[in-house]
Model the fold of this input.
Amino acid sequence: MSAIAATFPSPADGIARIAALYAAFGPRAYSGEPVSQLEHALQSAALAQADGAAEPLVAAALLHDIGHLLNDQGETPTARGIDDLHQFHGAHWLKPLFGPDVSEPVRLHVAAKRYLCAVRPGYQQALSADSQRSLALQGGTFSASGAEAFSRNPHAEAAVSLRLWDDRAKVAGLATPTLQDLLPLLARCAAAAS
Done:
């Protein structure tokens, strides 16, 4: 897999590019769910904030699916049997701007779904139809050894939290902060990582 590379002349340039991606692709439906890409991102971030997550993890929650926007495969690629590898594209693109505290939970949020399917009874059955379809394309439920290996990753706990917010961030019409409200948080995270 060749991940989408990014270079940012400055943190401000990176934040502007994120805002431009959401302006261009944010209104697109989020993989068969009753929300748009932007609404899903904002709901994920709002849930992270409500749970008292540190700012880098709020940023990761906001940006966890940016790989869908970077590697544009259209709406609901899973329905066509496509795994767009969004977690890798997103993490690779975000790492130069934010460092691993943001990029690693993004990279691992799909693995966290596979982990939760292995260790939490009823989790897989509660996934949305698209999440279940994408799970099959992403390698399915982890084996016991795969789950154990995932749990030893230093970013596993953050990725699991992100995944659980991701699962809940699909509510039509839910009030959230706007992207403009969250851009200063992204700027602080980028500044801290530079």
Observations:
- The chain has eleven helices and no strands.
- The mean pLDDT is 90.
- The radius of gyration is 15 Å.
